[in-house]
Amino acid sequence: MKVMDRIRATTVGKSIFRVPDRVTERDRAAGHWASFLLHIYPVKVRRKEITFRYTWFLGVASLVLFGSLVVSGIYLMFFYVPSPASAYGDIQTIQTQVAFGQYIRNIHRWSAHLMVLAVAAHMARVFYRGAYKAPKEFNWVIGVVLLVLTLLLSFTGYLLPWDQLAYWAVTVGTSMAGYVPLFGEQVRDILLGGPTVGSATLLRFYVLHVAVLPTLLVVVVTVHLWRWRKDAMLTADSEVEDA
Asked: Between 3.40.50.2300, 1.10.3720.10, 1.20.810.10, 1.20.120.1200, what CATH number should domain 55-242 receive?
């Protein structure tokens, strides 16, 4: 317990842990207010922080685009098999023979591009407003993780059409990952599943794209929204007016 107390007393610990020791009734109420499992929304939130001028709704746009990706992606999954022998043919079938196939695929592709732009613009907006400063610095870190997950979702979906553009783009991308210090080779081996891009690579990218990364994104987004709503009430009124 002494080690945890020391961690909580540090600047990093204070940015992560909001729950005080439950000694008094006030402490217990504060613990309930800070607990994600008890409730995700606070009792109140400032009206200014949910206006268009305050956020430009870039976070909302990112979530809407992610929802569009999930819905359109589920539809495309019914007609796609992650196999080198059939992947490219399945994409052609989707575009030419499946009802609304080309329309849904275009929605999926453009939603992916726009989501990257929306998340990057949201990060830039938060940075230039100085909203990453205390007491919101930990939520800024969560936002950076969300940006990385968004880029990984875009990258893992690039190989799925199994055409020449996707093949060589992923070949170059995984080769670059191999030069990351300390664990670059391990990351490259995990992505490739072999010495070169092949059937194992396609399967791994497919699993990452449709299962692992979306699940992680949903979890991290939930925590991100929770911390935004909680940390909003810790911002001084003067800071909100100056934003």
From this structure: 1.20.810.10
- Rounded Cα distance, 193 and 231, in Å: 42
99: Cβ contacts below 8 Å, ≥ 6 apart: none
The CB density around residue 100, as the number of other CB atoms within 10 Å, is 11
In this prediction the pTM is: 0.80
10 Å CB burial of residue 219 (0-12, 13-18, 19+) is: exposed
Query: Concatenated DSSP letters for 95-134?
Result: HHTSTTHHHHHHHHHHHHHHHHHHHHHHHHHHHHHTTTST
pLDDT confidence of residue 37: 58
What percent of the residues of the chain are helix, what percent strand, and what percent coil, each to the nearest 5? 70, 0, 30
Of 47-56, 90-99, 176-185, 219-228, minimum mean pLDDT range: 47-56
State the Cα–Cα distance between residues 176 and 151, nearest whole angstrom: 15
Region of residue 193 (phi > 0: left; psi between -120 and 50: alpha; otherwise: beta): left
Cα–Cα distance measured from residue 91 to residue 110, given in angstroms and rounded to the nearest whole number: 16
Instruction: List the chain domain ranges.
Output: 55-242
Of the candidates 74, 113, 236, 92, which has an alpha carbon nearest to the alpha carbon of residue 163?
A: 92
